[in-house]
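Put briefly, the fold is written as integer tokens. One such record reads:
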Amino acid sequence: MLARVQSHASGWVFTPADFVDLGSRTAVATALKRHKADGVIRLLGRGLYDVPRQHPVLGLLWPPIEAVEKALERKDGLRLQPSGAYAANLLGLSEQVPAKVVFLTDGATRTVKVGPTQVTLKRTTPRNMAAAGRLSGLLIQAFRSLGAAHITPERIERLRKNLPAAERAGLLTDLALAPEWMHSHFLELAKP
């Protein structure tokens, strides 16, 4: 187990489910407890661990939310879709860094506390999850968070500059999944 943990870079987030092939649940729990006591790993929240990252000036760092997202997806076989202010921040449409991060999911609703950040998994409709994991899903949630009045030509131009043309072209595939008021923005973004 230690070899697997050390094969990943610091900041890797994992759950006991990442080690089910190595032994029984009790054996994995015992090994995690031992490695936590030795300071090799850190308990972030119930059933969620990481390999701590140390910064020379800032000290011990919390893992990136993306790493937590991937661990939760692996553990429960969920699909997660960033939403709200977090989705807008990921796209560079907002500089607000939310203390409460919301992911839409096809799994159960629950909250996970990771250091100072609260991660909420919010069950939603299949339609909201149809574009999960794709640029269009992220855009739909970010635009919904900002509202129609705040999707300015400047923001669209910023997205056109920052997003690869190949990814933007794929937006047309998911056009039917976006609310009607977003269609013109998707069409503008998809232009070569």
Remarks:
- Residues 25-37 form the longest helix (13 residues).
- The first strand starts at residue 13 and ends at 14.
- The chain has two domains: 2-61, 78-190.
